[in-house]
Amino acid sequence: MSTGREIRLVEEDDGRWSAIDEETGVASHGDSREEALEMLDEAVALHKGEAGDPMTDENLRELGIDPDSVPDEPREPDAPWFDSEE
What we know:
By secondary structure, the chain is of the alpha+beta class. The protein has helices spanning 33-47, 57-62, and strands at 7-11, 17-21, 27-30.
């Protein structure tokens, strides 16, 4: 049974691979298709909150980010960093 989710693999000019989860817009890359897919699995899990620890105000300050400038609730980015029409 298919879930209907799609992952796109792109071989770049330098021989590296990009993997893009079409549903979430999350992308990653690697030196091989396998590595790109492994990195994408981790990135999607982080994106969905299935892995990693939540960011704290202290973490943000350590990165030089004002915690008051970050929304409390997750939201979609204003514009995708990757245009799937290209």
